Structures are given as structure tokens and as C-alpha cells.
Amino acid sequence: MRVPLSWLREYVDVPVGASPEEVLEALVRVGFEEEEVFRFDLHGPIVVGEVLEFVEEPQANGKTIRWCQVRVAPDGGHAADAGPAVHGIVCGARNFFAGDKVVVTLPGSVLPGPFPIAARKTYGHVSDGMIASAKELGLGDEHSGILRLVELGVDAPVGTDAIALLGLDDVAVDINVTPDRGYALSMRGVAREYSHATGAAFRDPAIRAVDEVAPGSGFPIAVDDRSPIRGRVGASEFVARIVRDVDPTRPTPPWMIARLTLAGIRSLGILIDITNYVMLELGQPIHGYDLDRLTGGITVRRATAGEKLETLDGKVRTLDVQDLLITDESGPIGLAGVMGGGTTEMGPATRSVLIEAATFDPVSIARTARRHKLPSEASRRFERGVDPAIPYVAARRVADLMVEYAGGTHDDRGGALYAELPRTRIALPAGFVEGVIGVAYTPEQIAGALRLIGCDLDERPEGWIVTTPTWRPDLTDKWTLAEEVARIEGYDRIPSVLPLPPSGRGLTPAQQGRRRVSNALAAAGYVETPSFAFTSEEQNDLHGSASGGHLPSIKLANPLDGQMPFLRRTLIPGLLEIAHRNVSRGFTDLALFEVGVVFLPEPGIRYGTSFVPPLAVRPDAATLTALDASIPPQRRHVAVLLSGNVVAKQPGAAAIASGLADALDAVRTIAAAAGVTIEVEQGERAALHPGRTGVLAVPSAASGTSVEVGYVGELLPAVAEASDLPGRVIVAELDLDLVLSLSRTQPVAPSLSGFPAATQDVSLVVGSDVPAAEVRAALVEGAGDLLESLRIVDDYRGAGVADGAKSLTFALRFRAPDRTLTAGEATEAKLAGVAVAATRFGATLRE
């Protein structure tokens, strides 16, 4: 809400010297958010001038200019720029005449843009200033001609400061009004709140001596709402006043244009400007109809199927049966509370105006505005709740302004429908406010704060019965009253006390495990990059299954992105998108990871529900069970992605590109943090390179078999290219929930033996089709408890090894916890492992 300060001062005593920042500071104290300050961005010598004469001079470019002599100071005086009283000015406009008074921007002034004015040579003359249009002064969008003061109904002596004359010295402050405080979308509401903040005297502009229109006093009005929303009729009040013999060509006063412009509304002519002005002043949206274009009386009703309406924006809209309409005998003439229709709009030919001020149901207006994607200043106020006590005041205010500034006359034949004013009565127990807010307010402070905002109080032994004001529909219970007391008394009185957490056992084992895995990957140099949980069906099928075939995915009813409407089955598409974004910004060496939820619907089960349990009521067990069943199983996965170099190029050393071994190191890091052993076997995935893909499995002591928990591999070049990623891309993904469930205990740091280790190497010749991991497992099994570590160091195929075979070299380290091992003990343990490998795979020692 933009608030011009000159307008605010009409209803509350703002100090003359108060800066916009001080006004904003006061409004922030009562709960508003500060936005910014708006000014007419112009300054310098801008004065009233009189066109003495001009000469029209055709130019070679086909344009005709006027060489004008303009008086900008009284006879014998000096101009505001210290120049002569008469300035020569070149002007291209042709809508002014000799003797006209205009606005002259003298050298040294600055117009919005910024556009500095200086004497300059043009068209063979030195133009000593500029004659301004309304657009150049920031007063509107009209740029077709010079601003003539006679058209504004303004007269002032030559040399008068035009900035003050036209109200261009005003300033507006912008505040953010929360949806529950719709009353503050008006000068009336903001002035009241400034009064609350500062104690300044408030003058309510809605308290006026007006004659209420008697119901049914001439113009027929009816409400026929057979389909109310939530049982509430669409229109509870409707006031119509008639003003005849208006002149729509009369100028809008400059002060009104300036205030509307600062408030963010452009001038559209005197009749529309007046309706907008009163809406901003009182918060009551107003609509004006060309009375001569109406057919019969007005009926407020719901639309029927297939009805159409051309709104003021020129669009023909197909109406919904829940849309609330303003109609006459010809059909719809407006979307109630949202926008009027084109058939009855006021225009240059309007001579009689029917003024509408009504109270519409907020829910109905909000739904209509959203349904037609048609937000308006009127709907913005109606959907937040408009004071039902002021429609007749606002209608009379508009009529008075049209009589004063558009030359109209009152017509007593109006029409009205009234309803009993809704005023909520709330029981506020003694001690309740202090208990909720945590501040020791006195009864006098509580009662004073509530009376200040307009409540009536009936004091009782047990507390108060509070009757809320008509302009505060947000006050619905004792908690909202407590909030108001805290707001008026000052939020700074509320102590900052940290709540004490309840006693408990801390994180669950699963939470601890996830945290260990994330911390371990981060410590290993990976960067955590959370991504959106949405993707396309193609990406789900490509990365979310081993075969790449179609699996069920959950499609959102209202996706944020129409190209990614499915819940993800895998984390890899999100990591690929993040990698692409980084590469596009020049970051090519990437080591990323994410821990997140994936959604794994089961075939043949339909998920989702159209049932929404009622608000403010705790669902019962059956409802919660049904809601849980409507959601697909959700598993927490961990995934890593490597691209570019794992070691950057350095002096004397070449860069080392990331490869499959680095991804396997990440898998081992995850396994160590989770407290499990992960084995790798060759496998296949639709998006991964054949021969460079591994299946990850955890041996299960209970069943004696291995449980598959994920995969690791290099993306196919075509898949990487489709993601706009250069070079090789290696990924790994594990079901973290499953991995943690297979961990029998939390990982414990191993104890360090004080005895030295014995190292041995062994080279085994096996068939080339025998996986190295299986040979390693056989060595581990046979070597027994003395084996501390075993790793493969070479895979050789060539001279000295038979065709169809390979030589695998392993480095073994043995250690005993209670003694120094002898070479013989280490050799015996190694040969025991070789014996197991020989039995299973026919392995032989390489000579």
C-alpha cells in the first residue's frame, strides 16, 4: 500500500517535519513491513510560464517546430534560473496557443529519468528550457501534447513554482499489508494505525453527515444467490446512487492526479479517478456504470453454464457457475468485486452515472479472481474483507466529488439493500493475554489497547466480553485479541526467551547413520547439493531401473514445472542437472553428493486421494492410515557424481582425471560410515557403460547371501552428452535406508595394535572371466583372523600369461593383537587363502 504523506496528514496529525523514514518507522512498530519510498523524481527551477507568441518553422526533415517566446517571470523580474523574464524555447508540440499558461522546465532542472534540462542549440535556435508534457513531469502516460494549465482548471501567476502547484513535492511510503489486515489497504486504515503507533489524533474520514439511501427508493436492486459458497450469500449489502449531468471531459485536479500517481494508480479521467480515489481513501471498492447504457435494474446472481462476459480489459470470458455477477435485463455487466463489463463502462459520452458500493463475500471474490487470473485492486480488498459499515458513506463520497469536480447533480432516486452489521462478541478471560504473550500487562493496558483499535468492552468479574469493530473481520477469537494487545503495547516488551527442549534420547540410530554418511562424504571432499524432487518420466525410466524399461512413476496434479511433473525414483537426474549448471558457469572439476528421498511406487497400486480431511480437526487413526496408503513408499538414497579432474594440474605433475576407482572410494567411505562391508560385482544399467558398471551388495550374516544395495558406474557417452556434460561422468547410488538397516551395530573405531605388521604379496593366475572381487573374497576367507588388510595392486594380461587368463596381484598385511608375527605365520595364512582360491577358481601361483 503506497501512502502519500499529504493525504495521510488529512486524517492524522503527522508532524510537519516528519521524514518518510520516520513515518515508516512508526508503522513498522505496529506490525507493518517497510518497503520503499516513492517520490516524483524531479527538482530544480520548474515554473508556470505564459506563451507570449510563437512562430511555426517547417524543417527539412518534414517536421514543423514552434519557436516560442515564453514569459517565466513577472515583468522586470528575473527567472528562477537567474535568466531573463522571457525565454526562447523550441517546442515540437502543437496543442497550445498564445496566452496559454504552461509548465516550463528551466535550465538546471531535472525531470524523471533522470533527464537534465540545459540550454541547447537545436533547429537553428538556442532553446532556453523546455515546455513540459504530463508524461515528462511524471503525471501520467499521455505524451501527445503540452500540459496546459487551463485544462487542469488551474491558474497561477507567471513564475509560480509548478512543483508545489501540481502537488509534485509530495512523497509516498510503501508498506506491505498482510492478508489478515485488509482494512489497512486504505488511507483510513493506515492513518488509524499511525495514530496507534504515535498517539497522534486520528480523524475518521468515514464519519460524515450523509443521507442513507432508503431501501427500494427508486432504482431496483435484487440479490438472487441460489448457490451460496459456505452458506453465505454473495452480496450482503448493495448501495446505488445516481449522479446526472456529469461532464467526463473535465480535468482531474492536479492534486488528485499526484496522489493517485504516488499511490500507483494512473489517471484515467475524472469519473474513474474519483472512484479510485475514494477506494484508496476509505478502502471500499467503487464501480461506476453509465446509467444510460443499463437495461432495467440490477440483480446480483451466480452465472449460468455457458454465459460469457466481456470485461473492461477487452477479453471475453467464459463464466463459471460459481462466479458472482452483476447483471441487468440484458445479462451480465460485471464480475462482482473483480472487474466491470465493457458494455456499461463510463466513457467520454457518459452523462449519468450509477455508483455501486457493495459488500461481497470474500471467498467468492477470491475464487473468481483466481479462476479468471484477474487480480484487481477491488478484488484485493474484497477478498481480505471490507468494512460493511461504509458502503453508503463511500457511495455518497463519490457522488459529492462528481458533483464538485465533474459538474453533476444529485439524483435522490437511488437504491439499497442493507444487512445487519456483523460484530463478533468474544469472551476474553482475565489473565489469558498475559499467559499467551508472556508479559505482565495490567487490566487497564489490555482494555486500553482493545478500545484503541475500536473494540467495545463489557467488563465482567471473569474478564471482558469484547465486541470487535466492523472493519476488523480478522478478530475472531481470544488469541487474535491477545495478538492485538501485544502489537499495540509493543513487540519490544516481549522477552526473548529460548524454549527448553524436552528431555529425550537425541537422534535415532537411522538419523545418526545418515549424518555420519553425509559428514564422511563432505570430509572426503564431496560437496552436498540438494536438488528438487521432480523429474521427467524419461529420466525416471533411464536412471531409475536396471533395465531402463518403463516403471510406474507418480505424476503431480499441479507441478511447479510442466516439463518435470513426476516424483523422482532416483537422485541421479538431479545431480546431472546440478553438474550441468556448474559446468555452464565454468566449474568443470566436480565431486557432488546428495542424500534425499526417492519415491518408489509399486506396480498395480493407485496412489493419491481426492479426500482432504477437515482443517483444525485432528484426523483419526483410520484417516491417517488412508492418507499414508495414498503416498508411495519413500526411501532415502545417497548418490555421488564425479566429473573432470580429481587432482588438478600442478607444476611438474599432470592432472588426474576422476575415474571409476574414485567412485568406488566414495562407496567405501559410505560403507565405513554406515558400519557395513560393501562388495562390488560386475553388472548392467541402462544409462551406464557396459563393462564399467558394478552392482553393490552387502553380505548378510543372517542369510549367508548378499543384499543388493545400489550400483556404481560410468555414464554412457551419449547420456553424458545429452546432459551437456563433457568428458567422463561417474555416478554411484545406494539405498541408504537399506544399507543402515544391514548394519548390526554402530561403527566403532578399531583399536591399534602396538605390534608390527607382516606384509606379503601374492600373484594368482585365474581365468580372465573370473571377477577379481571373488578371488579377493576367497583369499580373505582362507587367510583368517590374522589378515588385517588386502587390496589388489595389479591386473596383468600379456606375455608370460596364457591366453584366456590373467594375473592378479594382491598386497596382504597381517598383524596379531598380542605378539609379533613371524614370517612363517604370515606365509602360512597367505597360503591358506591361496588354497581356497585354488579350490574355487583353479587359481595357481604365478612364477
TrEMBL record:
<keyword id="KW-0963">Cytoplasm</keyword>
<keyword id="KW-0436">Ligase</keyword>
<dbReference type="InterPro" id="IPR020825">
    <property type="entry name" value="Phe-tRNA_synthase-like_B3/B4"/>
</dbReference>
<dbReference type="InterPro" id="IPR012340">
    <property type="entry name" value="NA-bd_OB-fold"/>
</dbReference>
<keyword id="KW-0694">RNA-binding</keyword>
<keyword id="KW-0030">Aminoacyl-tRNA synthetase</keyword>
<keyword id="KW-0479">Metal-binding</keyword>
<dbReference type="GO" id="GO:0016874">
    <property type="term" value="F:ligase activity"/>
</dbReference>
<comment type="similarity">
    <text>Belongs to the phenylalanyl-tRNA synthetase beta subunit family. Type 1 subfamily.</text>
</comment>
<dbReference type="InterPro" id="IPR004532">
    <property type="entry name" value="Phe-tRNA-ligase_IIc_bsu_bact"/>
</dbReference>
<protein>
    <recommendedName>
        <fullName>Phenylalanine--tRNA ligase beta subunit</fullName>
        <ecNumber>6.1.1.20</ecNumber>
    </recommendedName>
</protein>
<keyword id="KW-0460">Magnesium</keyword>
<feature type="domain" description="FDX-ACB">
    <location>
        <begin position="753"/>
        <end position="846"/>
    </location>
</feature>
<keyword id="KW-0067">ATP-binding</keyword>
<comment type="subunit">
    <text>Tetramer of two alpha and two beta subunits.</text>
</comment>
<feature type="binding site">
    <location>
        <position position="484"/>
    </location>
    <ligand>
        <name>Mg(2+)</name>
    </ligand>
</feature>
<dbReference type="InterPro" id="IPR033714">
    <property type="entry name" value="tRNA_bind_bactPheRS"/>
</dbReference>
<feature type="domain" description="B5">
    <location>
        <begin position="421"/>
        <end position="496"/>
    </location>
</feature>
<dbReference type="InterPro" id="IPR045060">
    <property type="entry name" value="Phe-tRNA-ligase_IIc_bsu"/>
</dbReference>
<dbReference type="Pfam" id="PF03484">
    <property type="entry name" value="B5"/>
</dbReference>
<dbReference type="InterPro" id="IPR005121">
    <property type="entry name" value="Fdx_antiC-bd"/>
</dbReference>
<keyword id="KW-0547">Nucleotide-binding</keyword>
<dbReference type="InterPro" id="IPR009061">
    <property type="entry name" value="DNA-bd_dom_put_sf"/>
</dbReference>
<dbReference type="Pfam" id="PF03147">
    <property type="entry name" value="FDX-ACB"/>
</dbReference>
<dbReference type="Pfam" id="PF03483">
    <property type="entry name" value="B3_4"/>
</dbReference>
<keyword id="KW-0648">Protein biosynthesis</keyword>
<feature type="binding site">
    <location>
        <position position="474"/>
    </location>
    <ligand>
        <name>Mg(2+)</name>
    </ligand>
</feature>
<dbReference type="InterPro" id="IPR036690">
    <property type="entry name" value="Fdx_antiC-bd_sf"/>
</dbReference>
<dbReference type="InterPro" id="IPR005146">
    <property type="entry name" value="B3/B4_tRNA-bd"/>
</dbReference>
<dbReference type="InterPro" id="IPR005147">
    <property type="entry name" value="tRNA_synthase_B5-dom"/>
</dbReference>
<keyword id="KW-0820">tRNA-binding</keyword>
<dbReference type="InterPro" id="IPR041616">
    <property type="entry name" value="PheRS_beta_core"/>
</dbReference>
<feature type="domain" description="TRNA-binding">
    <location>
        <begin position="40"/>
        <end position="163"/>
    </location>
</feature>
<dbReference type="Pfam" id="PF17759">
    <property type="entry name" value="tRNA_synthFbeta"/>
</dbReference>
<dbReference type="InterPro" id="IPR045864">
    <property type="entry name" value="aa-tRNA-synth_II/BPL/LPL"/>
</dbReference>
<dbReference type="InterPro" id="IPR002547">
    <property type="entry name" value="tRNA-bd_dom"/>
</dbReference>
<feature type="binding site">
    <location>
        <position position="483"/>
    </location>
    <ligand>
        <name>Mg(2+)</name>
    </ligand>
</feature>
